[in-house]
Design goal:
With 410 residues, the chain is α/β, with parallel strands linked by helices. It is built from 22 helices and eight strands. Helix 2 runs antiparallel to helix 3 (40-49), helix 17 (278-287) crosses helix 19 and helix 20 (353-370) packs across helix 21 (380-390). The protein has helices at 2-11, 20-30, 40-49, 56-59, 72-81, 87-97, 99-108, 110-117, 123-132, 148-162, 177-182, 184-196, 212-216, 220-239, 249-263, 266-273, 278-287, 311-314, 321-328, 353-370, 380-390, 397-405; strands at residues 169-174, 199-203, 243-246, 275-277, 304-308, 332-336, 374-377, 394-395. The chain has a four-stranded parallel sheet, sandwiched between helices. Strands 6-5-7-8 form a four-stranded parallel sheet, with helices on both faces. Among the domains are: 2-81, no CATH class; 304-405, Rossmann fold (3-Layer(aba) Sandwich), CATH 3.40.50. Helices cover 55% and strands 8% of the residues.
């Protein structure tokens, strides 16, 4: 930590990225530039304020393969993992990380659960905050009664009698917890837009949560167990000739970057090479001279769109392909590349809520200033935060493209 903190203090390119860096630089300056004089509490505050946005990898000039091997996000993860956890912190991690268990229960009891959790600051939410550490003030995405994979199984049976190809590409959807349990409409529109573009779409079998909540809480063993459970299904899809497509940026980043890092190359590397963000995949189709992306947008095309570029999508370094696809509709697109203050589960924790809301203010102000007809964003949790901060509904870009094609919402 002393070595990396010293390098960061001498560079300061990351000053504007997250609260960790102003806190770090102010603390070192207060010790007249002596990094070794930082107290344990000063070091730990930097760790606490790192919410794993991964934008260090985009902006830092010293990341691997540079000889200095500066990897600030993973250093923060290791530091957090090696610090003692309070009982309350351990409980919060267990609740936030068991997304499949919570999702199955939430979907099964959707009307009751949604009614109980829908009002921030309510007595139920305050009791939940005290019990499991999820902020009572944070707006939470509701659960859907019909899960995405259930919908897809029904559609697949119907599709076999309606659509026989020919297909110009093949893809397998990694559902993600947010699409599977809470916003299946994103997955539904993804499938329909892909079919419109002659992409034969399936769902990866035998997978659950990508494991990001375990990783971001510093529980590497639980993360690796989850990743190894998912790997066979992902690899089977790839070996059947399908690319993996992911509609949620954090999950896509985990499959592309973290699985090879923590599981080693080999099979995880093969999966990573064939994993694409959902809009990245379509843009690749559009740019391929031997294939065709349908640009006949005869449906509902908004005049103006404010597009929020999520941190974990920027960190994938694939370009802003969602924005590029939205521009093809003819809409005027304003891009806002500011953090929503969520970043996985960091912004859901009670102890981070006030800072998370502060982090999100520049994003909210930019959306208000743009005053576009429609707001779009790839990350469902970020979209929920945008709704809480601005009162605007933010939809996944593929949902806007589906409406632009004239595909009705289910």
């Amino acid at each position: 930590m002393t070595r990396v903190y010293d390098l960061c203090h001498g560079c300061r390119l990351c000053l504007s990225l997250c609260p960790s860096f102003p806190t770090l630089f102010d603390a070192i300056d207060a010790h007249d530039g002596d990094v070794g004089a930082l107290t344990t509490s000063e070091q730990d505050l930097v760790v606490d304020e790192c919410y794993q946005c991964k934008l260090c990898y985009v902006k830092c000039p010293y990341v691997p393969p540079h000889e200095w091997q500066l990897d600030f996000p993973r250093l923060m993860l290791r530091a957090a993992a090696n610090r003692p956890k309070t009982v309350s912190q351990q409980v919060t991690t267990q609740v936030l990380a068991r997304t499949d268990l919570a999702g199955k229960a939430g979907s099964l009891l959707a009307p009751v659960v949604n009614t109980a959790l829908s009002k921030p600051g309510s007595a139920v939410r305050k009791a939940l905050e005290k019990a499991v550490g999820i902020s009572a003030q944070r707006v939470l995405p509701p659960y859907a009664k019909l899960r995405f994979t259930t919908w897809f199984a029904r559609r697949r049976a119907e599709r076999n009698s309606r659509l026989a190809g020919p297909w110009q590409a093949r893809a397998a959807v990694f559902p993600t917890c947010l699409v599977e349990y809470q916003n299946p409409a994103v997955g539904q529109d993804l499938v329909k837009v892909y079919e419109r573009n002659s992409v034969d779409t399936d769902v990866v079998d035998g997978v659950g949560c990508c494991g990001a909540p375990w990783l971001h809480s510093g529980n590497f063993e639980a993360f690796e167990r989850q990743a190894r459970r998912n790997l066979p299904g992902l690899l089977a899809s790839v070996r059947s000739g399908r690319d993996i497509v992911v509609s949620q940026p954090t999950c896509g980043y985990v499959l592309k970057r973290d699985y090879p890092e923590y599981l080693g190359g080999g099979d995880a590397g093969v999966v990573a090479e064939h994993t694409f963000d959902a809009c990245e995949f379509l843009w690749k189709l559009h740019k391929d001279p031997d294939k065709r992306f349908d640009t006949d947008f005869a449906g509902d095309v908004p005049q103006s769109i404010t597009y929020h570029a999520p941190c974990h999508l920027q960190a994938q370094n694939v370009g802003l392909r969602s924005r590029d696809l939205l521009k093809l509709t003819g809409a005027k697109v304003t891009t806002v590349a500011k953090c929503s203050g969520i970043d996985g589960t960091w912004g859901l924790r009670q102890e981070n809520y006030d800072l998370a809301r502060k982090v999100a203010q520049p994003l909210e102000q930019a959306i208000d200033k743009a005053a576009s007809q429609v707001v779009a964003g790839d990350c469902d949790l970020a979209n929920t935060a945008i709704g809480q901060g601005t009162g605007r509904t933010s939809r996944h870009p593929l949902q806007i493209i589906a409406r632009a094609y004239g595909i009705p919402e289910e």
